[in-house]
Amino acid sequence: MAEQYRYIGRRVPRRDATDVVTGASDFLTDLKFPHLLHGKVLRSPHPHAIIKKIDTTKALKTKGVKAIVTHENAPDWKLGNPPIPLFDKRVRYVGDAVAIVAAETERIAETARDLIKVEYEILPAVFDDYEAMKPGAPQLYDDLPGNILPAGDRVMGPTCAVEIVMGDCAKGFAEADAVVEGHYGYDSIPNPIPMESPAAVAHWREPDSVTLWISNQAVWGAKSILSKVFGPTVRVRTIGGACGGSFGSKVMSWQVQCYAAALSKATGQPVRVAFSKGEHIGCFVLRPATRFDAKVGMKKDGTVTAVEGDWIVGTGYYSMTTQSQVAVGCGEAMIAIRCENWNVKPKVVCTNRNASGIVRGFGGQELKCAFFPILSMAMAELSLDPFEVLKKNFVKPGGGYFWRDGVWYDYRGIDFSSAMDRGAEAFGWKEKWKYWLKPTAVKGTKRVGIGIGVHGNADIGEDFSEALVRLDHDGTVMIHSCLAEHGTGQRSNAIKCVAEVLQLPLELVSMTPGDSLVTPLEWGPAGSRGTYAILSAVINAAEDVKKKLFERAAPKLGVGSIADLDTADGIVWVKSDPKRRIAWKKALGLRTLIGSGRFDPDYSLANCVMSFVELQIDIETGKLDLIRVVNATDVGKVIDPQGLEGQLNGCLGTAGIDSAIFEETIVDPTTGRILNANMIDYKWRTTAELPAIENVVSETPIPSHRYHAVGVGEIATSPGPSAVLMAASNAVGVWMESYPVTPEKVLRALGKTIGRK
Questions:
Q1: Low-confidence ranges of the chain (pLDDT < 50)
Q2: Pair (608, 711) in one structural domain
């Protein structure tokens, strides 16, 4: 019989729900500060240039201007790979920061910014990853020949995964019944566009102390990063609040935070820098671009015998995270496809476009969106059902994989096959599947096609997490955690877990704001780690404080072992004699108890989402309509039903399924400008255009923590794009070769004339 829970798995309102929907939540631009200044950024109109001269004279004379920072007077702050200064004499993309202005109002700052005169020496630029690697290509950095970044990532450790090389590919290809080669890209670099743009307020109170209020999903993570930027002598405090969503992109907002910090350091006053939506789309980090030139061998039974290829990863003008995304992507490929022989060689390439950063689907979505279409060609040659092949090849108990740290992990999780079967049944896969490059149905000029994708991630157990649970003398409980609220409701889930352990009414449990000064270490929610890693620390702290409570109560109740006690609703009693009881308040007296919990990294578990899609394409117009999506997963145990549903429904946008349909960042190949850096030309789905979505959620206990759960929010977007490309190919009867599947690409694939005759 399944264990019955008081709160776990039950629908309860999010703690911040009322504030969010009524507008009472304070986002960064809502916060009030005395003597607050406003910062604005002057940006380069050129993709590659040397600043010959910069004149700030007129701007500094503008009434209300307090400071201007350029490469000539900026602090010597660097970060990234390669390490880049906050301001440089050389600009490397359209939108690169040239100067920042602090003034009493935003309008004054904008006026002064526009008065700054800059003389540039224009340099040749390169925007294509393959072109950037050719001899004679423009070089972005003197010490990076061929514009190729060094492999590895120091954050991931000295053995960081830099490639997938194991077994003998020649032997694997010789054993294959089919060997196919292909080239696919996932390089339209869609933008997740969370509603609140990147922003920060900084107050440099003393020469060696700075406080930042940040719009970030990683409050302690931001402190860690900024401490490296500012140097070991500077004490950094970061305070988080409502984040307005992130989708990964707000984990690394160091530049906007540094702009505010540099201006505050120059003025001695608090300074807020908030990007406009145009800056957000046009100048903030994007998903890395991927191209995969690969060869795949497969047997008639669906066994993948060998995978060999070059993975070209376009990082833009620099990156803080691309090498780590490569490391994770290599591991995620091995989770999805069991194969004994690999030879996948990544190269991270710099070009004159925006930097790359974290976007939901970290590393694995990029690789698999280019890898799975080539895998599909092998399946088609052998007349294999893609559902059966993907189900067969996903990691199973007894299997394993190399993960981002270059270490082999024996997988100790569950078999997701039954969850996949339930999804296929709900979708009607067996009835709908006709064959490769065959539509499911034909309705006049409209063709219906189906496709499938799968994704899994072992970062559910990434990084450390610490939490404290404080039991006060009045019977209330406070959770101390640096967990940010980035739109998922994870803070409310932490409250549910603590209330469940202590069997308290939810209203008696609260949580501190994310503040690095007063909360223990916690990197931040990423990689679906919130449910396993973060909640493990919180649960452990709750169990620890419960133990301490029982130790206080046991002598008063005349029992020798705390195992003889139980508690609920602020009362402790003896299990064998429930009438022997004591109130928490009486057991504690005027005393506070603190329980501590910690989680250390564990990469031996993985999550899984399989997505089935059905779409319709009009072969006369090329228009694609998404009809239906079914997501199948097993989360072990549902903690928050409505939160899980929201995460899975988020498979569409935020650089998910719709990156295979219309979401893309369009870069002018001659000027390097992003042509759709606004909310009109950047295409995204409105609520009036939502397809039918069904989420089939299984609950097989997973050996994670007390509640046997793992998260899937980060990976919900990942299987969809490759599923759409497969479905589109099946609908029109030819292989669609790139994302997104726009009407123009459909018509070209069908050999139809485009435009006026």
A1: 1, 757
A2: yes
